[in-house]
Amino acid sequence: MPLPTPTALRVSRFASCPCSSPLDPRAERFVDESHRVLVSSDTVDLQPYLETAQLPPAFERAGPRWQLGFDPSVITCGIVTCGGLCPGLNNVIRSVVLTLTYAYGVHRILGFRYGYAGLASQSGYEPMGLTPEIVEDIHEQGGTLLGTSRGAQDIGDMVDMLVQRNVDILFAIGGDGTLRGASALSQEIARRNRRISVIGIPKTIDNDLAWIERSFGFATAVEEARRVIRAAHAEARGAWNGIGLVKLMGRHSGFIAAHATLANADVNFCLVPEAPVDLGEEGGFLPALARRLAAKHHAVIVVAEGAGQERLQNPAVPGHDPSGNLRLHNIGVFLRDQITRYFAAQDTEITLKYIDPSYIIRSLPANSIDAEYCLLLGQHAVHAGIAGRTDMVVGYWNQHFTHVPIAVAVANRKQLDPGGEIWQRVLESTGQPASMVRAHAAVG
Questions:
Q1: Which residues contact 36 (CB under 8 A, 6 or more apart)?
Q2: Residue 433 burial class via C-beta count within 10 angstroms: exposed 0-12, middle 13-18, buried 19 and up
Q3: Contact yes or no for 120/152 (Cβ under 8 A)
Q4: Any idea of the CA torsion for 53, 11, 107, 91, to the nearest 10 degrees?
Q5: What is the DSSP string of 120-161?
Q6: Residue 51: pLDDT band by 50, 70, 90 thresholds?
């Protein structure tokens, strides 16, 4: 992806209010606004800026500010969780509530129910009051205390609800769709000349938000996927010509599949959306799988859910659409059936076990790595909101927490580079032939 411009990285903010932070300066390190986090640490990218004495693109650093945008003693804050379930949602809710209460002394925190639907006047969902007592143990449970939903709501109606409830800061926890909605809320709020901050917290289990190294839930997903792959390997080795086929999350990006493969040396084939695969030709996936079975008599396959969702261009693939219209498949079921048919046609006996753990993984509590990360994301989101930032999402880049304008975070989707280091490591780990990948081929 091309580097964003320094102008694009400017974070919107409200003017400071006449109050200073209640945080103890002896215990808390306030951010010096002159310190920023470089977008690129590569000297090749930085050279043009060094030659012209310009400041290179850099993110605003996250953290507490001495000057605040709101008086925390009188404000109302809201929290909303949107989209699919993801490990760590309750951890983030808890972190935001505890930081608002104990660090800043905020007395009124509202949890809007069932995603953005809870901000719609016609939904009838009353917000719940959130206190440290209510959120005390929720981090030990999966899911979200507030409930969630998908789908858009009327932006003007939602802003009306925020105004009616006297909300000063809204924390929106979700992925790219949620963040686009949060940015639209910010723009409508600005059009009305209202002083309501909207802060995003990045929740996408697929880890596909641009300019954010890791979104919460990803580490838990990779760890749990590794357990499933172990089970698939045991099933495969337990039968002659046994095949374990595991479908993992990753609608547009194959990061979970790739990293779970790297964490488990038992995977023989990893299929991701970014590297389209041909099925049946000599250099394709099915002949490669046949060669693997002939040599070892078992195989483990990991496939991301978005793999094979390209235009159907190969007439050899059943279901080929000559018109080139986009056809979506359940790729796990599709591959299971294609593998079964292929070996039946060759009169080769196989035992195939198909495992799809997606909803089990999504609903789990966060592991220790994600739990710590969620705590810090929640804290930095509160610091940003109280400091008067808006239309931004908390990020993590080059070992620092950052403020990322939402427009920058959702402008492009982060994906694996088929020629990049991570994918090359996957190929080395699995031993799968690089010739399976074709620029214009499709799995299904």
A1: 58, 59, 60, 61
A2: middle
A3: no
A4: -90
A5: STTT--PPEE--TTTTTTGGGSSS-TT----S---HHHHHHH
A6: confident
Residue with tokens 């086929």: 245
Angle at 350 between CA 348 and CA 351, to 5 degrees: 165
* Model confidence at 358: pLDDT above 90: yes
CB-CB contact of 91 with 370 (8 Å): yes
16's enclosing H/E stretch is none
CA 375 vs CA 18, 30, 89, 346: distances in Å: 29, 18, 10, 54
- Cα separation, 392 vs 377, in Å, equals 13
Tell me what pLDDT residue 337 has: 94
Count of other CB atoms within 10 angstroms of residue 1: 11
Tokens of 261: 């493969």
* pLDDT greater than 90 at residue 325: no
CB-CB contact of 255 with 416 (8 Å): yes
> What CA dihedral angle connects 317, 323, 329 and 333, to 10 degrees?
-20
The predicted-structure confidence for 295-310, as pLDDT tens digits, reads as follows: 999 999 999 999 987 5
Using the structure block, give the residue that is written with the tokens 């374990």. Answer: 244
Domains annotated for the chain, with CATH where assigned, are 12-216+364-411 (3.40.50.450), 219-362+418-436 (3.40.50.460)
Give me the active site residues, please: 206
